[in-house]
Write a structure and sequence with these properties.
It contains 21 helices and 21 strands. With 559 residues, the chain is of the alpha/beta class. The chain has 3 domains: 129 residues, no CATH class; 259 residues, TIM Barrel, CATH 3.20.20.70; 134 residues, no CATH class. Helix 7 packs parallel to helix 10. The N terminus is likely disordered. It binds flavin mononucleotide. Flavin mononucleotide (FMN) binds next to strand 10, strand 11, strand 18 and helix 12. Flavin mononucleotide binds next to strand 10, strand 11, strand 18 and helix 12.
Length: 559
Amino acid sequence: MNSVSDIILTTGMIDADNQPGQIYWHAGQNGQLSELVTLSERLFSLNVPFSVISVQSDVKLGLGGSIYLDDNIDNDNSYQHLAFVPKQTIQALGNKQFCQDYNIKYPYMTGAMANGIASVELVEAIAKADMLASFGAAGLSLVEVEKAIQRLQAAIPDKSFCFNLIHSPNEKGHEDAIVDLYLRYGIDLVEASAYMKLTLPVVRYRVKGIHKDIQGNIIVPNRIIAKASRVELASKWFSPPPEKLLKELLAQGAITNEEAELAKKIPMAQDLTVEADSGGHTDNRPAITLLPTMLALRDQIQSQYNYTHELRVGAAGGIATPASALGAFAMGAAYIVTGTVNQACKESGSSDIVREMLANTGQADVTMAPAVDMFEMGVKLQVLKRGSMFAMRGNKLYNLYKKYSSIDEIPSVDRANLEKTIFKMTLEDVWQKTHEFFSERDPVQVEKAKNDQKHKMALIFRWYLGLSSRWANAGVADRQVDYQVWCGPAMGAFNEWTRDTFLATTDRRDVVTVAINIMFGAAVLSRANSILKQGVELAGELIQYQPMQLDTIEKYLTE
Ligand SMILES: Cc1cc2nc3c(=O)[nH]c(=O)nc-3n(C[C@H](O)[C@H](O)[C@H](O)COP(=O)(O)O)c2cc1C
């Protein structure tokens, strides 16, 4: 399944009567004609422009030669020109400066996936292929994150990668400690996410170390790729750090006067990933409406502050195929971010059972369920519905939490049911375990629970929500029905695209092959679309691109 013949590119018949204009192609000395059946091959050779031409009643492809705007040519080798297909590099799909700034080859990023699902192996693979990956630090302990930093810094000292900095309203001390860790290890690029407002730790991270070089340029060592799905938040990321927080950091002695002054001239984040309907935390906004709004916001804030380095917008949510990637780039995304599809790849920190479940997922097999990190606030995230009862059970727990003020208020029938089906132990035992966990990780929670029975109930319920994703990652077989698997509709789209190809099976899915196929495929489709946009009808069928092996793609890229 890995030769060029596996690639189906359906062209159908070209309607040669649909003439775009009086343009002629002349073969000259070096021009070559080839049959229409070689169209897919021609499209794959991204660096080689070609023409679609009409030869008597036939349609052919012209390589080289010359194009003329008048018909005053009396030559057997001149034919009516129907369309020109330009060169399309993968890099040029997005923003070249983005690639330069982060020292990567393609404007492609794999987003963080909590609990190390975006694992060291995943980050390493993507970084070695000169793309950008974000390590899934959320939900991990400081010790685990530190180990990941050490491993990646040792394995790929010269490559770019980033770490997730996640807003943790329930664990304020943790966010501060993570920032300390990143600063200590020189992690100078983070993907910041789940922020509902800017916090002292994230501002401290951004501002620490700002200085002027001898030419007077402002140098900002710590860079943030922020993630947001709401305009109010996006505008905070694109604006300079809030004065109030700068003053507080100054008062604490956490930053210097110079750092606070220079901070007023830079945005919190130069890059903002617009998160549409994705796996995990999402507002379920459609990318097609969200992206243009955020692009307009970028322009407005850029002209307001006139930053030296222009603001950029990337797209995430629903991207797992060449067509969706091309759509995002065509709308103006500087770069794209994938998530869900990478969890299904062999490098992810998830389990084989989950990878198998994901391989059988359709677009409608996802639903919303309570998020463990913001359970009390009613925040939800998108999870896999097919094959798991987690969403139903998680929602049940949230409804009980809303309705009652303490565990003791829950009617005994409901309580017995929870203990039997969800927790598989008494709620007293769950509290014992929860107590042990938080005593070590965040003792404030235990203190609070002593005087606040509703908080105690939240902690008990969060025990299930927290473990359900760990059972999934560890592949605990007898808890499969409780797996919490963060997943967006992108998974179904990917499965559709790769059906009956080598990427249909889980053991063949690796993050680099997936990434390169999405990006290469987007460039191929861009070239194919350019034929359609010049008025040449590729009758009946849409042009498709099916996955290819990396060495085959590499061959085309070097032509
Ligand atoms: C399993 C999983 C875990 C995720 N965890 C995080 C996380 O901890 N931090 C974060 O910023 N984004 C997280 N995301 C979001 C991804 O980084 C990415 O932005 C998103 O998945 C892109 O949309 P898609 O799922 O449609 O590809 C997660 C997504 C998934 C699927």
